[in-house]
Amino acid sequence: MTDSQDPLRLHKGRGATRNITGRFASYSSTRENDGWQTDQEPVERLLTEAIEEKAKSIIATNQSPDIPFTQSINPYRGCEHGCVYCYARPAHAYMDLSPGLDFESKIFFKPNAAELLERSLRKPGYQCSPIALGTNTDPYQPLEKDKEITRSLLIVMQQYRQPVTIVTKGQLILRDLPILAEMAQDNLAQVAISVTTLENELKRRLEPRTAGPAARLRTIEQLSNAGIPTAVMAAPIIPALNDCELEKILTAGHEAGATRAAYILLRLPHEVAPLFREWLLAHYPQRAEHVMSLIQQSRDGRDYQSEFSQRRTGTGVFAQLLRQRFIVAIKKLGLNHRRLSLDCSQFQPPPQPGDQQTLF
Length: 360
Known about the structure:
By secondary structure, this protein is of the alpha/beta class. It is 31% helix and 12% strand. It has a domain at 49-265: Alpha-Beta Barrel (TIM Barrel). The protein has helices spanning 101-105, 113-122, 144-147, 149-160, 177-185, 200-206, 213-225, 246-256, 272-283, 288-297, 316-333; strands spanning 49-52, 60-61, 71-73, 76-77, 106-109, 131-133, 164-168, 189-194, 230-237, 260-265. The N and C termini lie far apart (67 Å).
């Protein structure tokens, strides 16, 4: 599809330009301009639909050597934040939905998540290790304000002293500051705030329904002031778009109180690659070819590498330079000076039904 065939008509507050066909669909479609459509025609507002999902299990496990956790929970499928680059988008294809606009407008929530978590923690064979929230979709996306599923999970974790790590872009995490602060006092909680850019305009185009850069830095500050170990994540780093901000993001995060930092090179698995290409053409057409060229130079000539040792940081000259810049920056700022490990020894399994409760 080219601009001459069908001018991209963007949906306000949405990241993807359209509903791309999922890779498992038995059909596909293309849009053609018959000459009657104009850029001035209003685009119908795309409303968010919340869909209840009665999950059968809640804790996902992995053995990936490049991921610092083995257990995770995703309270939601899909994310209203609308980040066009989100590597979780392809998961919507498993539900016969599009990784494009469907991903950010048809959000599945799990009302029984806390009940399932307590049941999982009660199992005799459960081995306590930190549970990561926000590994796929953001646990503090807008729907959380009403559904409070992430909050209900934290309450269970706090009650049974289950360690938790959280990655989010959402200011809504401050609602749960008392819970997280109390858990952090016992070394049971850590948080990472993702800061993609310090430029408001780029944020608006790239992550339309997320908190602004200044708000995220204030979130880091408030979490840190409450005694919660907080990291700043420069993610994703997009060549020729926000890579020039790496040091500025790390510095701003450090000044806000972050003690640790990380970065991730842009990942474009499956349907994310064509969605991102279309987004580039819509917002940065003059830079699109250069951006994709640098991405492919960092991905062995491809849009994406899935190998464990390469998918987060890439390969090649640009990726190596980015890695060196990060190392120099965190050393200068004193970030990542010591490794923080949550305490799993305090875990208390939920009592079995019928068990006598303790007096204290």
